[in-house]
Fold:
Amino acid sequence: MATNLWSGHWNGRTPVGDNHRRARQVISPSGGIMRGKFPSRKNGRLVHHEGLLELDAIYLLEASPQVVRYREQPTTITYPDGGRVRRYTPDLEVTLQCGTSIWVEVKPAVFLAREDIQHKLQCVAAHLKRSGQAFVVLTDEVLRQEPRQTNVRAICHQAMRVRLTSAFAQSALHRCAMDLPASLARATQVLAAHGADPYSLLMAGLLRCRLDAPLSPETLLTHTTEADDGWFWLAQEHGF
Structure:
């Protein structure tokens, strides 16, 4: 089975980036799980997802300015369950701007009503707490909030394929500061003259907009200030 062994930065049609080998790989796919690969600007490689709910999570992590990097199925651990030792592989490992690492389990909320799954996740959470590893379960109730999910997908799709460097994005924004706040349509026009776009700056955390209404040409974009601590949250208690 092919693995991604790229290194460096995402660069147009030659994606190279985070060197990552999944701890658990599907040898013979079965069942109704929709598996695929997402071209991540943030990681500079194709990120595997198992199921559409994981893909929903990936879009949000890709757009979150608090998230520096995320990895799928990063490692496998053993944890105690009564008199037995079991294995567990988190769905995602998220690394924040502050350097904190958070393990994420993506799970439909309906599954959490099952006693066996509740018991497993409680054992995993207790073990990780003792070892100092942050852990959070994200459900469809969080990941599929609308119109946020649709808006974030649109932002990811419209952003430039080649991720802007921080210095370039800051410079472009500085030149357009006098025009802000502005509508999405106006910001697109103004930033284009400087080789940038509002979608990339939203993903970089330099601009912000409301996500509780459908994105449109009239959507108001504002400059992010030092007092702003995030323009959307998945697990605010964990910093992202």
In short: The helical segments are 52-63, 115-131, 140-143, 148-158, 166-175, 184-192, 198-203.
